[in-house]
Structure formats: structure tokens, C-alpha cells
Amino acid sequence: MMTSKSSNGSGTKRQRTSPYMPLTVNDLSADLWCDIADFLPKTSRALLAVALTAPPASFRESGWKGQPNAVSKAIISSAIDKVLFNTLLDELCEEARGETDANGNRRCIKGYATAQQHDRQFRKFLSEQLNKYYNSAWEILDFVDIPVSLASRLTDDDLGAVLVCIDAKNNLERLNLTHCFNVVGYGFIPLRASDVLEKIDLGLYRQFETPFWRSGSPRFSFREVKLSEGPVCDILDSILSGERGNSQLRRLQYPYEWYQENQLGQFGNIADGGNMDQVMRSGRMREFVKGHNAATLNLFSCCVYFGFGSNDGFCSSIYDVDVWKSDLVDTCLGCYDASFDVCSHCDEILCGPCTNALECSNCNVIYCRHCQEANGFAGVVTFCDSDWCDPHCSTCRSSGCRNGSNNCSDCKAIVFDTLLEECNVKQAHIDSQQEEMERSKSIMFTSEDPPITIRIKDVSGETLVTVERSIKMETLFQAFASKKDIDVSNLRFTLCGERIHPSASPESLDLYDMVEIEADW
Q1: Which phi and psi angles does 199 have, rounded to 5°?
Q2: pTM for this structure?
Q3: Mind listing the pLDDT tens digit for each residue in 78-115?
């Protein structure tokens, strides 16, 4: 018969206990709990830490100020054993094979659309995502390592409690809300004013997958998404305007379902949509993006970026490894490419393959599909028929063929009519000037009196002009000004120091042959 010391204060009296009295979880040591946790996926360890502390709702009821107990802290801080990594990978891959639509189609893997490649590439990309997660402490929280059936049932209380237990405000750099379809957004409150969070990915799918089914099936999300723009944007506002003004947040990936309903049927509509006001369903989201001057919206990857300064700065920096370490989240959902540029007209980010937009190889002008069609820029940048020639805009192609820097015969054929029209316009202008000169000559030599020659002296020398005696001096002045390429109003003609009136004539001035007048300007 087992005995135990009494708690009545005497310290000497013992009470009888049953040798078969069951142990409770409170009787297990922290070391034993850590040993048990070694058999769990990383995210399940955090959920276990929450369960051993208090019901998840109690964290919210305490204003998210509760703290994990000693056992939970030990589980969170203990090293993560990767012995079961391959077993976990096998289980997750097997579960994913059952994720199909009514026609048996599976979701697309970015860059790999064929069914034959699907299983192999799925395992490869999932292994990479898990490795990145498991090689970090709690700088990353990614729900990718637990079954979809569990992740999809987690609530905001569960999420918030996990964030409290891992001290996310001071530790978490990246949050991937993989498959957490039941979360609304209030569970992010423990992240308020975080100055270490860098990436928050709320696409709700594995980062290497799209929200679409494989081709041949209606291309829309297969889950009802509860995540709401209001609470999410409120928390992000607090992070971006943190207490210490030292926010590290660089990327928000939002759910595809945050686009307007008429944009969800086919991703190509995004390429036609133009700008944020036409595509985003929520005024709160539009207000959030516009409220942060450094925010860059990329509609093609469902991401908002911070700290790049402008759309052009984003496109030139996102794949510079010294500036940004890109991943599959940064790629386009429509073509899985990363050929982003900025429309030269509307300044919106565009995806070259999705918009069929070409960039001029000379001046780098490029237009999105919306501007091509709505603003008459269709065909402004094109290829010629030559296989080796780069795309040119109409201005650069004409300029190159005109000055000889472009020797492509196919380009010359494209601009031939344009250049011919330019030549015809210039020839017409030359002909008009010649006709004007002939008319002036006819006016100058209409008198029967013998003409005289007048010497016009200026700072550059002397000019001889032969005129009829009856012609007005203003005609002589205009001819001299035209030859000198000077505005006649800036000239002053004098004879013996006296200014000559334009309405006078050689005859009225009694000028003789080879007389000298002076021109000043």
C-alpha cells in the first residue's frame, strides 16, 4: 500500500493512496513531453504546446497576453528532430493525391502542367518547402506539414494561441497560412507592431501550387475562403507603422479570392483588367495599398510588396539577389513566369507572356494589353519578318532605318511607306521655297529702268545685291535677312548714318550704282 505525505500542515501524517491511481498529464516531466513531441510534425508541436497551456480561446479572452507554461516553453524551445521527415513527406504526398475536383483533376504546380510530371515535381517542391521550414527555428511558421483536414479546421483562436506560444512578435519572420481556410484574420493580433516579420503569405495553398485546377476543369479555387481584408489590413497597418518605425515587412501574398467575382473564372481576365480599382473586390484592400506610399501591387502574383519605392523599382530589383531573395510565390499565377515589367503608359505592373506585350529593344517602351487596346497602342512594338531582328517600336524602327543604324531589310519594308511620305513632305516644302524665291526674283526685276547694284556692309563683310530702282527697300531687306537667316525685325539699315525706311525705293532715295548701305543687328 502506497502512502503520501499529508498536506494538512503537520508534514508528518501520511495518507493512503491506491497503487493503481492513474497519472495525469500534469505528472509528466517536461523532458518526457519533449520526447513525445519529437514524434510530431513541427506545427503539431506548437499546437501541443497550446493544448498543454490552456484552451485556445482563453488566449483571446486574456487579450492575447497569456504566456505558455514551463512544459510548453520547453517543447517550443527544444530542437526539432528530422528523423521522421521522409515518413511525413510520404504521408503528405499520399494525402495530396486525393485532392481533386469532381472530374478527378488536380491543382496545377507552377511551371509543370502535365499529369506525368505532377507526382515527381510535387514531391520535389514539397520537400524543398518543408526543408526550409524545418531548418529554421520559429523564424518560419508554415502549416504545410500538417494534414489539410486539420489545417482547414483551425480557427483564429488556434492561430493566435500558436503565435503567442512561439513569441511570434519577436521571432517570426515568415508566416505561411497554408490550408488555413477557416481563419478570418483576428488571430493575427499577436503580430501587431512586429518589427521582425518580413513575409506573410496568405495564399492558403502550398507556395508551389496555384489556386486553379488543372486545365480541362473550371479554373477557380476549390475552397471557401473566410479570410477577410478588414482584420488583415488592420494588423498590417500596425506593423508597417510600428512603434519603433522599423518595420521589416516586405511582402504580403493575399488570397486569389480577394479579386472581384468576375475576375475569378479565368486568370487571363486579370491581364485585361488594367488596375487595382477594376480588379480588387474590397475597398479596404484598395485603401490599404494606396495608404502606403512604398506599396507595390502585383496583380499577377497576388502580392503586395513594400520598400521598393515604385513599380519600376520593384521590377528592376525583385530578382537582384542582393536586394531580394525571390521564391515561387513571386511568380505569375497565370504563366508561372517572372517576366514582370511596367507599362510605359499607365505605370501598372504587367506580365509579358500573359499580356503578349513586347519591349522595344532600343528605347524599352512596353504597353500592357489594356493600354494596347484602350489607348490605341496596339502593334506599337512588333517583330519584323526577320528571325534575327529584335522587336522595335514604330518610332525606333523608323529612326534606325532613316539614319542607317538599322540595316534590316524587313524593317525597311515595314517603314518604307512612312519614310516615303516623309520624303514627299520634305520635297513639297523645298518646292514651295523655290517657288517663293522665283516669285521674289520676279518682283525685283519688273522695272524697265536699268537695275543697280547695292553693296550691303555688315560685321561679316559685304553683300552685293542687284535690284530694280522702283522696288521697295523692304523687299531688299527681307531677301538679305533670309540669306543671313536673321529675323528682319532685328535688322537696322542705314545710309550715311540715317535709317532707311522700308517703304522707300532706290529711286526715291536717289541711289546710284554700287552705293553702300550698312546693316546692323
Answers
A1: -135, 135
A2: 0.69
A3: 877 665 778 888 898 888 887 776 666 677 777 665 66
In the chain, which stretches have pLDDT less than 70?
1-25, 81-83, 101-105, 111-116, 212-223, 242-245, 261-275, 294, 321-323, 374-379, 440-449
Q: Which amino acid is at 323?
A: V
Closest CA to 132 of 329, 303, 314: 329
- Which residue(s) pair with 499 in the sheet? 494
DSSP E strands: which ranges in 277-403? Answer: 295-298, 303-306, 340-342, 349-351, 381-382, 392-393
Q: How many CA atoms lie within 13 A of 245 on its CB side?
A: 0
- Name the H helices within 408-463: 409-444
Strand ordering across the sheet containing 498-499: 461-467, 452-458, 515-520, 492-495, 498-499
Distance of CA 107 to the CA centre of its chain: 25
- Please state whether beta strands 340-342 and 392-393 pair in parallel, antiparallel, or not at all (unpaired): unpaired
Query: Could you write out the DSSP letters of every residue in 175-232?
Result: EE-TT-TT--SGGGGGGTT-SS--EEE---S-TTEEEEEPTTS--S-SS-----HHHH
Helix (H) or strand (E) holding 56: helix 56-61
Q: List, as one string, the DSSP characters of 76-143.
A: HHSPPP-TTHHHHHHHHHHHHTT---TTS--EEETTB--HHHHHHHHHHHHHHHHHHHHTSSSSEEEG
**Do 278 and 233 contact (CB within 8 A), yes or no?**
no
Beta-bridged to residue 2, according to DSSP, are 17
Task: List the grid coordinates of 347.
Answer: 505605370
Backbone angles phi, psi at 399, to 5 degrees: -60, -45
